Amino acid sequence: MYEKRGAHFGRGTWNGRTVARITRFLHPQARLPLSAPKWVIGIFAPPNTNASEEHIKRHGRRLDYYERKRKREARAVHRASATAQKAFGLKAKILHAKRHAEKVQMKKTLKAHDERNVKQKDSSTVPDGALPTYLLDREGQKDAKALSTAIKEKRKDKAAKYTVPLPKVRGIAEDEMFKVMRTGKSKKKAWKRMVTKATFVGEGFTRKPVKMERFVRPMALRYKKANVTHPDLKATFQLQILGVKKNPQSPMYTQLGVLTKGTVIEVNVSELGMVTAGGKVVFGKYAQITNNPENDGCINAVLLERQRMQLDRLLKDPSKPAYVPTPPKEKSVRPAREMMKNVQGSSAGAGSGEFHVYKASRRREYERLKLMDEKAQKETDMAEFERKRKEWEDQAEAKTAKNRAKRQKKKGRSKGNTTEKESTSGAGASADVPDVPLKKRRLVSGKELIFRKPGDESDEGSEDDIGPAPPVPAGPDHDDTPTDTPPVGVIDAPRITIHEEDSI
């Protein structure tokens, strides 16, 4: 029998009155008996959902339908965000799971859309039928718009794998890296892990609540400084660690800041005074860990020099031609067109058909004005730099001239004092001594040795007189017996005389 809804229908055949009585009390989703005729079932069938579509086909849509639809879709994002922020409890969990699934699906759709229009080789497809001779060596192709980012990153890692001091390291198992921490009253929960290796934690790091912290990094294994060796200077410096760039074991270890052998870290080299070609101070550089910090209690690393790696790769195969990139061309101002469309005013409104022309011309004009301003600013900076450089050179030249005048004045004063001493020394002075300023005076084999100051020249312009006098060859009239010779006087220049103890 059919379901009753609020009244007794009574007996009767399936006529109009019976159907009317049933319609009055029966719920739309109620089940009808199988014995009901088709025309009765049709009355209780759900309404036709195509009525709205039929109405649109016949009468069209409202004039502002698409504008209202665009605004509704634009507001939907903010409305969903507000709902997600206000939700809490079980509803929040369900809502977040739903939005997460939507985002994953959207990313998959975008990725499939991007990998659509670029041709790639596809060896899996085998063409049907016979092929001409010139097509035998060709492979099938499939369309894809761009290579995957993961493939690019793998290629970069593979290319850069052999440009570090330690290209290969030993793999570390998860059991060796983590230790299971059991929690709960009966110690049955085992979802926490404690890191057993050295780690780096940044300055502004804040721990999560204890109940929410999955990975525990002990304070005793946290390091902030590393002993970094400079390969060219052959010196070691203790530098501050700025971050973990790459851990070869796993990306998760990189995110956790685990420091193992072969890890590339970033260190602060501002204390070393390293500068770039433009004169800027280098703040951070990469270094690779060369020891096991958890065993040694310290971190030893080698500084990675990009230029050094490039030179090593270049000298590995000297016969291979080196690639020298061309310098970038300076931006030139594009001249204005001879004829421009006058699309300004009311005809260039946002809704007109000429707006794109006006927008493009305005953008080009703004680019031209920007380039002109940059060029003028560059010329002003260069003129200011040349002016300052000339000013610095003039100051240096004035200072040098002043010091030169002081030296000449002091030299002339010393020369005058030497002339007075010469007049009082007597007639025993030797006239063969050259008139040159002396720094030291020695007797070598009984002869005088004269040293001249660097850059000073004698009045005669001769350099042959400097040094010990040549020995006089022995002759029949030559007597080797020592005689009492008068002391040698210093003339015309200040000299430093060194008297030996035996000759006094």
Automatic annotation (TrEMBL):
Classification of source organism: Eukaryota, Fungi, Dikarya, Basidiomycota, Agaricomycotina
Keywords: Nucleus, Ribonucleoprotein, Ribosome biogenesis, rRNA processing
Main location, first listed in the record: nucleus
Family: Belongs to the eukaryotic ribosomal protein eS8 family. Ribosome biogenesis protein NSA2 subfamily.
Task performed by this protein: Involved in the biogenesis of the 60S ribosomal subunit. May play a part in the quality control of pre-60S particles.
Entry GO terms, CC: nucleolus; preribosome
CDD domains the record matches: NSA2
Organism: Fibroporia radiculosa
One Pfam family cited in the UniProt record for this chain: Ribosomal_S8e
Protein name in the entry: Ribosome biogenesis protein NSA2 homolog
TM ranges: none
Compositional bias of kind Acidic residues: 457-466
Residue spans of biased composition, Basic and acidic residues class: 377-400
The protein's assembly and partners: Component of the pre-66S ribosomal particle.
Keyword hit for DNA-binding: no
Localization terms from the record: Nucleus, Nucleolus
UniProt GO MF annotations: double-stranded RNA binding
Biased composition (Basic residues): 401-414
